[in-house]
Structures are given as structure tokens and as C-alpha cells.
Amino acid sequence: MSKTIEERIRIIEDIESIKKLKASYCYWADAGIAGDPSGMDQLIDHFTDDEPWADFGPFGVHKGKEAVGAFYREVVPATLSYSAHMVANPIIEVDGDKARGSWYVDVPCTLQGAERALWLQAKYEEEYVKEGGTWKWKSITARFDFITPFDEGWVKTPMISTE
After folding, report:
1. Residue 160: what pLDDT?
2. Where in the sequence is the domain holding 104, given as residue range(s)?
3. CATH code (residue 117)
């Protein structure tokens, strides 16, 4: 059964809202890493209250809003002193008040303490739910392709220790 024009417009509007949510994620995360805690607060506020989770591979799996919040407020700024998230190639599938998205992310960043410039690349797999007319994250999974020193590159050193 084909969708009505209204249903098709709603899906396009939902996809655009999810793209805006993801772009905001980049700004909020970068602001939080740069020392503005309100950035991380904004980011965390856009996770659903219903048992969200974040899987960041070597940085752990964080289940529940409190654990997800602690990850973004504590682990991320303790790991990086600078970042500039750039997401691309979104593939977003909307199904009513639920959606899934895949994104690539490239992040020039600086490792906290060592003040070492890095390149980071990953693929995000995300689940979203619409709550009260607003799209929120149910889950974020990051699968890292590389975290490499700027001066060495991913061929020579594909994955450094971030500890």
C-alpha cells in the first residue's frame, strides 16, 4: 500500500529532525569537551528516559540515563581536551515513532593530558524514539575504524591506547 503525501512529508520532516538532532549532538559534545558542561547536559537531555544505552567499544557500554550521563560528563572530557565531530552519509529509516540511523563520523581531536593530536573515525548505529513530538536517542553504538596519531596515520597506527 502506497503512502499518502501527508505520510511521506511526515517521514521527510522526521528525517530532517533526526539530522538536526545529530548535528546538535556534534556541537553539544564538542562544547562539553571544551569545558562547557551545558553542552553535555543538552546532549544527555536528548536521550530517552526509558533505559537508553551507549556502546563506545573501548570506552565501555553504558546502560540507563544515569550511566549514559556519567559517560558524557566524566569519561569523554577526561579523555579528550578538544574535538570537532563531523558526521556524514546518514541513512535514516523512520517507522512511525521509531527510527534507525547510521552515520560516519570523523573527529580531529586532542588526547587529554598528552596533548597529542589524533584522528578518530567511527560508524554510529543509532536508535531513536519520538517522545512528545521530539526525537530522542534510545541507543548509540560507535564502532571505531581507527584512533590514530595525527602524524602517523591509520595505516601505521590504526588504534592507539586511550588510557
Report:
1. 87
2. 5-156
3. 3.10.450.50
